[in-house]
Amino acid sequence: MTDDTSEILRGSGNVFRDFDRPDADVRQAKALLAAQIIKILAAEGLSTRQAEARTGIAHSEFVRIRKVDLGRFTIDRLVTILGRLGQEVEVSITVRPRAARESESETAHP
Predict the structure, then answer these.
(1) How does DSSP classify residue 52?
(2) How far apart are the C-alpha atoms of 22 and 104, rounded to whole Å?
(3) CA 79/CA 58 separation, integer angstroms
(4) pLDDT tens digits for 49-100?
(5) Residue 39 and residue 68 in contact, taking contact as beta carbons nearer than 8 Å
(6) 69-83: string of b/e by CB count within 10 Å (b at 16+)?
(7) Alpha carbon distance 45, 66 (integer Å)
(8) How many whole angstroms from its chain centre is CA 86?
(9) pTM of the prediction?
(10) Nearest to 76 by CA among 60, 63, 89, 57
C-alpha cells in the first residue's frame, strides 16, 4: 500500500532558514566553513592534536568543530583556522530583500 498524500517541498538551500532559526544566514556560513575544516582534517588524516600542532589552534577547538558545536566561533575565526590549514577562502555575498513572509512576521511584533 502506498501513501499518495506525501508532498515534496523544495528547501531554500539554507536549512536554518527553512526551520526559522535566528541568524540563519550566519549559522549557514559557519556550518559551511566548519564542513570545509572537517573535510580537510579527514583528507589529510589529521587528528585534533595533529591539527593543533600544525596550526597553533587548541585541539579542543577542532573537537568542537568536528561536533559541529559552533556557538563559540565567529565566521572570522573559522576563516582564520582554514588559513592556518593552508587554505584560501573566497567569499561571495548576495544581498536581497527578505521574502514577504519573513518581513511581515518581523514587523508584526510591536
Answers:
(1) H
(2) 15
(3) 15
(4) 999 999 999 999 999 999 999 999 999 999 999 999 999 999 998 888 977 6
(5) no
(6) ebeebeeeebbebbe
(7) 13
(8) 20
(9) 0.79
(10) 89
Looking up cell 568542537, which residue turns up?
64
Set of cell numbers at residue 103: 518581513
Q: List alpha helices for 9-94, DSSP H.
A: 15-18, 24-43, 48-55, 59-66, 75-84
* Contact between residue 23 and residue 68 where contact means Cβ atoms under 8 Å apart: no
pLDDT of 105 reads 53
- Tens digits of residue pLDDT in 29-41: 999 999 999 999 9
Place of cell 515534496: 8
Query: Residue 78 belongs to what H/E stretch?
Result: helix 75-84
- Pull the grid cell for residue 70: 559552533
How does 12-29 read in b/e, with b if 16+ C-beta sit within 10 Å?
eebebbeeeeeebeebbb
